[in-house]
Amino acid sequence: MGNDEKVRVSGEIPRSPETPVLPTVNPATEKLAPPKSALHPSAYIITWITLSSSVILFNKWILDTAKFDFPIILTTWHLAFATLMTQILARTTTLLDGRKTVKMTGRVYLRAIVPIGAFFSLSLICGNLTYLYLSVAFIQMLKATSPVAVLLTTWTLGVSPPDMRVLFNVSFIVIGVIIASFGEIKFVLTGFLFQVGGIVFEAIRLVMVQRLLSSAEYKMDPLVSLYYFAPVCATLNGILSLLVEVPRLHIQNIYDVGIWILVANAMVAFLLNVSVVFLIGKTSSLVLTLCGILKDILLVFASVMIWGTKVTPLQMFGYTIALGGMIYYKLGADTLKGYFSGAGLAWADYGNRHPALRKLIVFGVILTIVFVTLGGIFPNYVKDPKASIQGSGVLTALLGNKGN
Length: 404
Hints:
- The chain is mostly helical.
- It contains 16 helices and no strands.
- The protein has helices spanning 41-65, 71-92, 106-130, 136-143, 146-156, 164-183, 189-212, 222-244, 251-257, 259-282, 285-307, 313-331, 333-353, 355-377, 385-390, 393-399.
């Protein structure tokens, strides 16, 4: 081996502390984990139920209790406010970035957005007109027929072929609502027809959206839909209000309700649309269905507590049938079987761990059903207790006429 030959030396060569250590993974290609939501999904559910119920109760209070009998003007105000707010959000936040993926052209706007917006306007107007005649409780019972209206409209417009099996499934909804209508004490035909009209117009709107805007390039979340539809609806409603309600409107009518009350009302209605966007992203379709049913039930109780609405046992019986039919139609038999099976196993396990408490619960439920049933079957013969006492000769002789 010559002196000039290079010698290879193997072994660890100590590194200087200042020598940088190369990363084993390229930071540019390393995927960041999506940030977890700071709020539990239940927070979005509670928010949506609260806002949705508040809009209905708020509108009922303004139109009926506060005697602001201008439903078309109120609807126009809501839509004008929504137009302003969506324009502001589109320029200041990312909530409406979804509109950038929508291939909206002038032709699509005129052929799809404008006619759909017209039916949207009619449904909102009829819905607000109903508050002048019917109670919130009865309105919610009638709204249970919405899936039936949508189904019949899809068949009528040829979007889907008729299916007698599905028609049989939804017939329970109709039967339940008919029973509830017979049990309604303050039935007003005008309000009933307005509500039916609102349901029909909304069904046509939903089917038109399915028919005209069903492709992927027109998919919109509720807030983006409001961005496009609110200006059209506000314009159409404004024209109608100029012809029907504005001539009899006085500035005192607005002052009687309160300007800030109207602003708050429009803000709550707009926030409802914002909450829907977050709710859809955080929950499933099952949760949305059940939340809607829970909201309707809570509104019935709210109507009873706030306005003293009288709900008869026959109404509750019919409404229960309608809600059961709605759940069955929206979820399907297989899904319900799975949930009932899981609930049965959980109930059996609970009975094994707490047998006495389980028997007490069963007894309480049976007792409640018996009292509700008897209260609906047997009429109340004593209309005026004082008159009943005075009508008894023996009691009158003993007590005298001091009760007069």
